[in-house]
Give the backbone structure.
Amino acid sequence: MADRTLVLLKPDTLQRGLAGRIISRLEDRGMQIVGMKLMQMDMDLAKQHYAEHVEKGFFKGLSSFMTSSPIIAMAIEGNNAAAAVRACMGETDPQKSLPGTIRGDMAQDLGRNLIHGSDSPESAAREIAIFFKPEELLSYERDTQRWITEA
Ligand code: DAT
Ligand code: MG
């Protein structure tokens, strides 16, 4: 069933110029962008988004990294979107991620793992609401045939 998940392209993705390649992998899988913005997280947003990690030892490093330079936030639609995006992403630790995954192919370091994807449909709903107003999410049909025949 088609549903939605939140993807963040983290500061390392933009610093390394990998945004297009990572977006392509999600599009290649057939997933659809229904919301997208370039933005810079502040500490309040980092605490809200990573609420489950605020008390953990790595939160200081995680939050200073996530607020260090711009990110791209995307709402992505697809079949079982949260699980599908996480399968494309690979494991949290890129050292454990298989080749063929985004982290397994492009990252080496746990603290610099390029991409966030919600870990469940419930997290996706919570996280999408943090980053997007309802009117910033657009539903649309993709009909490539229409563009060919009308050209
Ligand atoms: P994921 O991003 O795969 O959902 P997570 O929610 O457990 O992973 O953690 C959020 C981010 O925090 C993760 O992408 C990288 C960082 N992180 C997680 N565990 C860490 C650790 N033990 N040391 C340093 N950074 C960590
Ligand atoms: Mg997580």
